[in-house]
Amino acid sequence: MAVEEIVVGRDPDDMKKYGKKGCIFLGKHIVGKGSDFHLTNPVLMDVLRPHIVLVTGKRGQGKSYSAAIIAEEIMKLPDDIKSNLSCLMIDTMGIFWSMKNPNDNDLLLLNKWGMKPLGFNVKNIVPVGLVDFYDKAGIAYDGTFSIKPSELSAADWALTFNIDIFEPLGILLERTLKKLSGNYSIEDIIDEIEKDSRTDNKDKMALENRFVSAKGWGIFSDKATPIEEFLEPGGTAILDVSLQEWNVRNLMVGILSREVYQARVSARRQEELAVIGGEDVKKVPMTWIIMDEVHNFIPDDGVTAATKDMLTLIKQGRQPGISLVLITQRPNKLHGDAISQSDMVISHRLTAKPDLDALSAVMQTYLLFDIRKSISSLPRLKGAAVVLDDNSERLFNIQVRPRQSWHAGASPVAIKEKSVY
Ligand SMILES: Nc1ncnc2c1ncn2[C@@H]1O[C@H](COP(=O)(O)OP(=O)(O)OP(=O)(O)O)[C@@H](O)[C@H]1O
Ligand SMILES: [Mg+2]
What we know:
By secondary structure, the protein is α/β, with parallel strands linked by helices. It has a 13-stranded mixed β-sheet with strand order 1-3-2-13-12-11-4-10-9-5-8-6-7. It has two domains: 6-147 and 222-400, P-loop containing nucleotide triphosphate hydrolases (Rossmann fold, 3-Layer(aba) Sandwich), CATH 3.40.50.300; 149-217. 35% of the residues lie in helices and 19% in strands. It has helices at 12-18, 63-75, 79-82, 107-112, 131-137, 154-161, 168-179, 186-195, 201-214, 246-277, 294-297, 307-316, 336-341, 353-359, 368-376, and strands at residues 6-8, 23-33, 36-46, 52-56, 85-91, 123-127, 143-145, 236-240, 286-291, 322-328, 344-347, 384-389, 394-400. The protein has 15 helices and 13 strands. The structure holds adenosine-5'-triphosphate (ATP) and magnesium ion. Adenosine-5'-triphosphate is lined by residues 57, 59-65, 329, 382-383, 400, 402, 407, 409-411.
């Protein structure tokens, strides 16, 4: 007898139109509680439409692992679907690069799932100013990330420098940038600050020092990486931000979010014109952005250099076809809009009450009690999770499938462990 697959994130109309085409395999339904359970029906997730998927759970429960499954599965889709999608992973821990390598370590586990180890042709991108470090450390990469100083607004600089735009330094910053035009460098900004006659030397020095330190952030060049480099049809790009401070990561993510949004808004227009004109002109495919430790980029309290542009993606990204996979240990610390706009949640074990409470904002109609009950009934296995589907307003306990590519984020162990299922 054929096993009925469970589909999450797809509405009944799309189900009728596309069936299970363009769905990815997340894992299997867990039936039973605690240690008395078995794995049953496959659980599939829609990736044809834009979604916001919140991936949560305590440390070491499988969040990054599950998010990487989404990227693996998108890369395994048939060409006609895959070529309309791209994946951009923001790697805060330096763990996703290993997707190029097959997961030979878990051969037996993969066998049980009827799967094989598989490396993926991902594109590892590193900040342009840090290439010496990667070269010396013998870490291979496929491209670099750079932005032009002239791309940044006064607000971008102020948020990254942590200065108030209404204080003397902020006022000097804004006045300086207004005087510059074209493709200016950090040196040009420093020269312009020097020339300012309306600010005292102490403030000028303070701002100059910040710009001198910005040269060491490793992201500036007179040429910016075109956004198309990150968003190749059918491709996955992994941007390693793990070596940078949080203020710089926020800036990078803010700029990238802005560019992805603009690129997709204009691509969407071309796509619609192509529908009218009948020719296919798509350049930048629909995008899945997968982001680890997202509560640091868009915290519930305070504003970072990523906040404004990420909130645009969250609130307005559906129409231009931008999906987000937001990974966090602490949903309660994440900006409320990110939670309330999520239409799916993959929640691994989570015990802190404020974090569990935060999840209820995703499914207003669902009883928080049920979410809690499902999460507490999960077997104590890595990769076990509750999937909340706002579309069907249902909850499923699942075991996320094993990775086919190598997961570099494993916790170090003093003794070699064997898989438990
Ligand atoms: N679906 C799964 N199947 C098998 N093993 C898994 C699965 N998910 C996670 N694991 C195991 O659990 C380990 C921890 O997973 P992962 O790195 O995703 O944790 P995390 O929740 O992202 O933790 P952190 O909050 O510290 O980043 C993995 O290295 C892997 O060994
Ligand atoms: Mg992780």
